[in-house]
């Protein structure tokens, strides 16, 4: 993601922090972040809304490749299950403020599987203020539900053959509805009455309507079958034959499974902030690093203390090798025993040691040092330029295999352009070889130019040995601009040789060219 300051890059990243809080903690009004604890102050839901306008709807959507991920299983597996036939998912959430108490709420969420809408979950009309009760509409015409009785299309009713777009049935918020009326586009916009009209005309053939319970702030409880409202309401009417068409297992797979996959992906993600901390000289080894310490960079130094020798060597080579980051420094880990002062004094002065002294009983300590490649001098992170302390957490996070999602802010901070180009190779290795999704906020043209160069070299068969080949489809370049009417995002597409298909708006990195010529 490129863009001038305050163009909206950080807002994109903050939306990921917000969504993880929603899915992981059912918290719709977070101040801190599950990625970064209190190192990020999101300021609550209203602060995240565009222009902080009450009545505005915030929509977040996520596409998920499920070719190598299975949907969760709920309850006892039955013969009819959709999990094995799902290749992709798209989940969309809309958030707004309650008109009465101004608390945030989920206005709807939509589930799309294999590129067709399959489930729409809304607040229950009768219990609209109750976040635990939801209405769900299931698209019986979805191909995944082909074994369920549905209405076949006819020549007189060709619409029955077309995919059912549940998005058209989403009620608009009051503000959006008013804006559409002013724009004279109301006749083409979805409305609350459109759902009622659809249900009256053909909804009994194409839609199943459920009333579900057990939600928390509009989000399902994870790992549990969804519950029909009448299952636990002894005074309610028993489930109708229509609602028994889908088992609770399949209903859970449709309305909860993709959300749980998204939650797991976000929960396993890492975020590295724009200002990484220099570790203390005596960093304590206290087990696994805290996930929230990745944002400050301290978790990366902790990982260096506990990782395998092979992984430490890999990180060290990335830092030192001339065809990679070429910083002039590698890494070395020292493992030693901490001896009491009197024992050290005896060793230095040559005095005899007690016969019963057992060195193995003294505590073990580990330290990670930087080794100057030229002089072979070992130094601490405090003894070198601040750029290395900013770079090393980025390198460790990128090469860490335990997470498939990495959010990075300004990885080039305090780093020479010669090292910045190496970051391009580093992120290509993480994405193309380790399968990591990396979302980068940057101002570094050097890093981008290196990625574009690698695409060209791969296409022309000139890729240097030992580096990661790349295709134009491996990289998405987003230009964010804010010209007073809201943020616009432009995809800067590349051709097969890594060249921009269309010119960069106002010229490619025109500041550099203007200063050069």
What's the SSE blueprint?
Elements: H1 9-25, H2 45-48, E1 58-65, E2 88-97, E3 104-113, E4 116-123, E5 134-139, H3 174-182, H4 192-206, E6 207-213, E7 227-228, H5 248-255, H6 257-267, E8 270-272, H7 298-306, H8 309-320, E9 329-337, H9 341-349, E10 364-372, E11 378-379, H10 386-399, E12 405-409, H11 417-433, E13 437-441, H12 445-460, E14 478-482, E15 487-491, H13 510-516
Parallel strand pairs: 8-12, 12-13
Antiparallel strand pairs: 1-2, 2-3, 3-4, 4-5, 5-6, 6-7, 9-10, 10-11, 14-15
How would you characterize the overall build of this protein?
This protein is of the alpha+beta class and 517 residues long. Among the domains are: 56-265, no CATH class; 275-347 and 359-404, no CATH class. 29% of the residues lie in helices and 18% in strands. It is built from 13 helices and 15 strands. It has a seven-stranded antiparallel β-sheet with strand order 1-2-3-4-5-6-7. It has a three-stranded parallel β-sheet with strand order 8-12-13, sandwiched between helices. It is globular, with a radius of gyration of 28 Å. InterPro entries: ATPase_AAA_core (IPR003959), Bact_Antivir_Def_Nuclease (IPR051396), P-loop_NTPase (IPR027417). Residues 2-445 form the ATPase AAA-type core domain. This is AAA family ATPase. Pfam families: AAA_21 (PF13304).
List keywords for this structure.
517 residues; alpha+beta; seven-stranded antiparallel beta sheet; three-stranded parallel beta sheet; 13 helices; 15 strands; ATPase_AAA_core
């Amino acid at each position: 993601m490129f863009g001038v300051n305050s163009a909206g890059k950080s807002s994109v990243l903050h939306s990921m922090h917000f969504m993880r809080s929603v899915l992981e903690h059912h918290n719709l009004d977070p101040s801190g972040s599950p990625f970064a604890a209190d190192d990020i102050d999101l300021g609550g839901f209203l602060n995240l809304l565009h222009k902080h306008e009450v009545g505005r709807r915030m929509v977040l959507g996520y596409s998920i490749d499920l070719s190598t991920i299975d949907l969760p299983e709920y309850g006892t597996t039955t013969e009819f299950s959709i999990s094995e036939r799902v290749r992709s998912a798209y989940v969309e959430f809309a958030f707004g403020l309650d008109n009465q108490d101004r608390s945030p709420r989920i206005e709807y969420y939509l589930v799309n599987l294999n590129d067709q809408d399959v489930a729409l979950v809304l607040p229950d009309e009768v219990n609209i203020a109750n976040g635990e009760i939801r209405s769900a509409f299931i698209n019986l015409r979805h191909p995944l539900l082909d074994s369920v009785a549905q209405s076949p299309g006819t020549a007189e009713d060709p619409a029955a053959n077309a995919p059912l777009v549940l998005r058209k049935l989403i009620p608009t918020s009051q503000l959006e509805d008013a804006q559409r009326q002013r724009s004279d586009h109301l006749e083409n916009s979805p409305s609350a009455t459109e759902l009622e009209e659809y249900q009256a005309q053909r909804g009994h053939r194409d839609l199943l309507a459920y009333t579900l319970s057990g939600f928390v702030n509009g989000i399902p409880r994870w790992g549990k079958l969804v519950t029909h409202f009448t299952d636990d309401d002894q005074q309610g009417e028993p489930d109708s034959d229509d609602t028994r068409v889908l088992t609770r297992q399949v209903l859970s797979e449709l309305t909860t499974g993709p959300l749980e996959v998204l939650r797991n992906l976000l929960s396993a993600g890492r975020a590295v902030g724009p200002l990484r901390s220099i570790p203390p000289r005596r960093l304590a080894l206290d087990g696994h690093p805290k996930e929230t310490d990745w944002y400050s960079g301290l978790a990366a130094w902790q990982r260096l203390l506990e990782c395998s020798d092979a992984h430490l060597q890999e990180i060290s080579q990335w830092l030192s090798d001339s065809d990679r980051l070429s910083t002039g420094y590698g890494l070395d880990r020292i493992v030693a025993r901490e001896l009491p002062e009197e024992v050290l004094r005896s060793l230095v002065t040559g005095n005899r040691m007690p016969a019963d002294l057992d060195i193995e009983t003294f505590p073990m300590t580990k330290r990670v040092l930087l080794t100057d490649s030229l002089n072979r001098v070992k130094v601490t992170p405090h003894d070198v330029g601040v750029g290395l302390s900013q770079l090393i957490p980025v390198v460790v996070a990128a090469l860490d295999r335990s997470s498939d999602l990495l959010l990075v802010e300004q990885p080039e901070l305090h780093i020479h352009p010669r090292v910045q180009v190496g970051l391009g190779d580093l992120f290509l290795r993480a994405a193309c070889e380790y399968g990591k999704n990396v979302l980068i906020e940057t101002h570094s043209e050097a890093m981008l130019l290196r990625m574009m160069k690698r695409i060209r070299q791969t296409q022309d068969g000139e890729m240097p040995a030992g580096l990661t080949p790349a295709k134009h489809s491996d990289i998405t370049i987003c230009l964010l601009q804010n010209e007073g009417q809201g943020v616009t995002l432009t995809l800067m597409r590349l051709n097969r040789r890594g060249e921009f298909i269309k010119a960069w708006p106002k010229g490619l990195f025109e500041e550099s060219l203007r200063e050069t010529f």
